[in-house]
Amino acid sequence: MIGAGPYGLSVAAHLRAAGVPVRIFGEVMDSWRHAMATGMFLKSTPDATDLSAPEPGGRLADFRKVRGESELTELTPIPCDVFVRYGQWFQKRYVGDVEPAKVAGVDRDPGAPGFVVGLDDGRQLTAAAVVVATGLNGLAYLPKELLRLTPEGPAAGALVSHTSHHSDLSQYAGQRIAVIGGGQSALESSALLHEAGAHVEVLVRERRVLWGSVPRLDRPWPQRLAQPASPLGTGWTLAAICEAPGGVRLLPAAARLLLFRRALGPSGGWWLRDRVEGVVPVRTSCRVIRAEASGSTARLEITRPGGSERLVVDHVLAATGYRLDIDALAFLAPALRRGIVCVPRSKAPQLSSTFETTVPGLYITGSLAAPMFGPMMRFVAGTEYAAARIARDASRWVVAP
Ligand SMILES: Cc1cc2nc3c(=O)[nH]c(=O)nc-3n(C[C@H](O)[C@H](O)[C@H](O)COP(=O)(O)OP(=O)(O)OC[C@H]3O[C@@H](n4cnc5c(N)ncnc54)[C@H](O)[C@@H]3O)c2cc1C
Fold first, then answer.
1. Is the C-beta atom of 103 inside 6 A of ligand 1?
2. Which atom of ligand 1 is nearest to the CA of 31?
3. Which among 21, 50, 52, 350 could bridge 387 via Cys, Cβ 3.0 to 4.6 Å?
4. Angstrom distance (rounded) from CA 378 to CA 265
5. Which residues, listed in sequence order, are joined to residue 300 by a DSSP beta bridge?
């Protein structure tokens, strides 16, 4: 098992419950501790934030109850640190040992069916099956216009960085920062930067910023019928996607990719609106067409409907999302990667109904599975569908002693 985030822990919990010998590599809830800024909240609601346990009692609500903490409702955004503590509790309760080593290589075992797994400390082991649950690690996307600011690659110290490089935005206090993007990451980062004393401006491609609406706990039935609730929001399309990820997999590839790209556009959580609107300057309908370093500053050329403008800042924070690209999983040996057939017109893996790639015994879950099973796999809510299926199928590779 490569990865100990929500997906890795959920699959591992099911494997351990089934008595399958499994070793789990990765840092528990790593992305939530190190790739998200302090002070962030989850956009998803408590009901959509449960890991998948092999028996009742492992939901976020159960964790809160056991710890004597108050119940969360749709009207209480979940702080990231609550979710991290929930993941750690889940790991102790359902998973047990997790090895914090990084997997540096996975290749076919030349001497037997299965795989050779190399760790970054030089150790090697063999495995009958491998499950990849590395989330968005290594998949951060930086538009080519920004690459000139960072010939050495984006990093916290460079003129441009990606939101996933930061766990503390207060280092930018007093500096001029351009945040590129119009989704939750951009908007929440801009609020945190502003609150830390930075001079922030958000540059958004879309004509306007979209905000989620304040949830109503007591929706009358006609409204519930017209706009059914789902872990991803309200509406029939989202409800269908969440109800039947297996059905999504059977759609033609072009339809699945369309769903993947369009079903959930960029928007900000309802609870964030007051911290951004009228507080942080936001330029909409604008596109950065050139970015150049000038001494210790970044000069941006921006086009807007009325013409072009320039902006000089001390740092550019790219909240420009992630690209699903199997080639970015550098730990997979090139020959192994070549054996993984991708969804047409994408670099995401084609997967069986049990998340197995076209390399027998190699499974991929989480965001990389979204072009097959739909947008729910981009979120914690997808663990319920994925975990038991993968665990059941992967256990068939284990030869009884
Ligand atoms: C800013 C932000 C906010 C988000 N908010 C929400 C939200 O509110 N609700 C929601 O449902 N989803 C949210 N998401 C999506 C979120 O990433 C996923 O829902 C969830 O974390 C996916 O879990 P995962 O297990 O696939 O990956 P991750 O949580 O990213 O876990 C990856 C694991 O892989 C390990 N790993 C990586 N590389 C290696 C390696 N080479 N060897 C060993 N281990 C490795 C890491 O240590 C880690 O344990 C958000 C994402 C971002 C970026």
1. yes
2. 30
3. 52
4. 13
5. 291, 311
Residue 153 has pLDDT above 70, yes or no: no
| Average pLDDT score over the chain | 92
Round to whole Å and give the CA distance between 263 and 187. Answer: 20
38-47, 129-138, 359-368: least confidently modelled range: 38-47
Give residues with Cβ within 8 angstroms of 105, minimum separation 6: 116, 117, 118, 331, 333
CA of 110 to the centre of ligand 1 (A): 32
Is ligand 1 within 6 A of the CB of residue 136? yes
> If pLDDT is split at 50, 70 and 90, which confidence band does 223 have?
confident
Backbone angles phi, psi at 181, to 5 degrees: 135, 160
Domains and CATH numbers, the chain: 6-138+323-397 (3.50.50.60), 144-210+267-318 (3.50.50.60)
Q: Does the Cβ of 332 fall within 6 Å of ligand 1? A: no
- 31 pocket-lining for ligand 1 (C-beta < 6 Å): yes
- What's the CA-to-centroid distance between 6 and ligand 1, angstroms? 7
Q: Which of 10, 52, 137 to mutate to test the pocket of ligand 1 (most atoms within 8 A of CB)?
A: 137
Model pLDDT for residues 27-61, shown as the tens digit of each residue = 999 999 987 878 899 989 998 999 999 999 999 99
